[in-house]
Specification:
Number of domains: 3
Strand order of the largest sheet: 12-1-5-4-13
Number of helices: 19
Mean pLDDT: 84
Structural class: alpha+beta
């Protein structure tokens, strides 16, 4: 999950922020599921008794197959122009405890089609009850699948109620027109038009309770499809953490020693539909453009894979095993035209790695982006090597990476100093800056503490001032989670500024 997280951030670096966040949940009443359930008789029962009929939970194989086909159709619609010109996407599949799968999908639009105003938002997302006369099919679907609640302090037993408040922040306020909020999401138009819906239990809903949706997708797929606009870069890490949060599990131990491995295995829940999904070999994750992970290693310090019966001497003398994407990047720079103009990080966009031949090959249409594996500052020379690989182009050997302005330096760290990459705590600033693009505020605070304790930055107060915004970037979210949504971003930043004073 962590590697997928870094892949996503590489796609974000390449495509920009995501524009649309979509969640689609299985509808167990889909005709494709219902028509394939059958009725049967129990031989031991009275033949005059009514015949028994299967439910969707009896056939997880059908649920998995139908949902996989629905995903294919929905992705075909999104890539076919439903949301304008799509540059990339990433999705993951999650399974509820009740067994129904759902997909979390992030969509990246090309730069010319980015969502930039309220009118564009309204053309994609609606948060209103449709007109039952003009759009009867959409009205039936929205009132069935896209109404939240009812929930309120008067209904404390509602599933979404936590400490007397809805954890989804419903009911929403009426809003005459769409405008952009401070938390990275627009506040959609929810006019007080008097349009309501009353369900068979006598509960009444209005535009306060509508979950944002795409009219076309909702009418077409007849299920819960929540569509949100990502209007700010602030939403990226929280969206990503949500879609890659992993499987639900819980462990409770009283008065016993904790065996973390056994606890994880015992708490890992795999339902019937998820089991069928894996047995049918459906994908749990997909991304476009593809991300190629580039190794970062010192000379002759790379990993190799071998069988336990292999002769170590044969392995050490196998020249093919000494070739890695990094060492062959040197070779490509020396032999392939135009290779010197492309850095190691961007090499997969122009060249393709042939695993069998273990070499880079030019490719005219490489819809692949590269990212290097994250290297900790405590890795020493390997960290400085990764720093050089982000800026140096055309190197033909390890020594070329250590050369600068005609001088061969004794180490990668010395070469970084010569290039000005480590001046004034620059190495730690670069480390925290790179981690800030991938990690949340709590994780950044831990890294910040490690740097202060073990790396001895020259100007800690300056280091704090440069990074305090990222270190506290989840503070607004945490305050909302603890019931203080009224605290604005300006107030939070004022608090951060005060906290940095002597």
């Amino acid at each position: 999950m962590y590697q997928l997280f870094q892949d996503f951030m590489a796609i974000t670096r390449h495509c920009g922020k995501p524009d649309i966040f979509l969640t689609m949940t299985t509808n167990p009443s889909w005709p494709e599921i219902d028509d394939n359930l059958f009725t049967y008789e129990d031989d031991d029962d009275d033949p005059d008794q009514p015949r028994k009929r299967q439910t969707a939970s009896d056939r997880p194989d059908i649920v998995a197959r139908v949902f996989a086909e629905k995903i294919k159709a929905m992705l075909k619609d999104t890539k076919g122009g439903l949301f304008s010109n799509v540059q990339g996407f990433v999705f993951t599949i999650e399974f509820q405890k009740c067994g129904l799968p759902h997909i979390h999908l992030l969509i990246f639009l090309r730069q010319a089609f980015k969502i930039c105003d309220a009118a564009h938002v309204d053309s994609i997302v609606s948060a209103q009850i449709p007109d039952p006369v003009a759009h009867p099919t959409l009205y039936a679907m929205v009132t069935k699948c896209m109404m939240h609640g009812p929930c309120s302090p008067e209904l404390p037993n509602a599933p979404c109620m936590v400490d007397g408040k809805c954890n989804k922040h419903f009911p929403k306020a009426f809003n005459p027109e769409t405008h952009f909020g401070e938390d990275g999401y627009p506040e959609y138009a929810r006019p007080d038009d008097g349009r309501t819906y009353t369900n068979p239990r006598g509960q009444t809903f209005d535009n306060h309770n509508v979950v944002p949706y795409s009219p076309y997708l909702s009418a077409c797929y007849d299920c819960h499809i929540n569509v949100e606009i990502c209007a700010s870069v602030k939403a990226i890490k929280y969206i990503h953490k949500y879609i890659y949060k992993g499987h639900n599990h819980a462990t409770v131990v009283i008065g016993q020693d904790i065996d973390e491995i056994s606890d994880h295995i015992g708490a890992h829940y795999v339902g019937p539909t998820e089991a069928c999904w894996h047995m049918l070999e459906y994908q749990m994750h997909e991304e476009k453009p593809s991300v190629y992970r580039l190794p970062v290693h010192l000379k002759d310090k790379h990993n190799i894979h071998y069988d336990e019966d292999d002769d170590p001497n044969v392995l050490l003398n196998n020249e093919a095993l000494k070739k890695t994407p990094l060492t062959e990047w040197f070779t490509a720079n020396a032999t392939l035209p135009d290779a010197k103009d492309v850095g190691y990080l961007d090499f997969p966009q122009k060249f393709i790695w042939e695993k069998k031949a273990r070499k880079w090959k030019p490719h005219s249409q490489c819809n692949v982006i590269g990212r290097m594996y994250f290297v900790s500052p405590k890795a020493g020379e390997r960290f400085y090597l990764s720093t050089l690989l982000t800026v140096v182009k055309g190197a033909e050997s390890w020594e070329d990476l250590r050369k600068y302005q005609g001088e061969l330096h004794t180490s990668f760290k010395a070469a970084c100093f010569a290039r000005g990459l480590l001046e004034d705590d620059g190495e730690w600033q670069k480390c925290l800056q790179e981690a800030g693009n991938m990690q949340t505020g709590h994780q950044l605070c831990c890294l910040f503490a490690i740097i202060l304790l073990h790396c001895h930055p020259a100007q800690p107060h300056v280091f704090w001032d440069m990074n305090k915004a990222k270190l506290c970037d989840d503070l607004h979210h945490r305050l909302i989670a603890h019931g203080t949504p009224q605290m604005k971003t300006s107030s939070i930043m004022a608090f951060i500024s005060l906290s940095s004073s002597p």
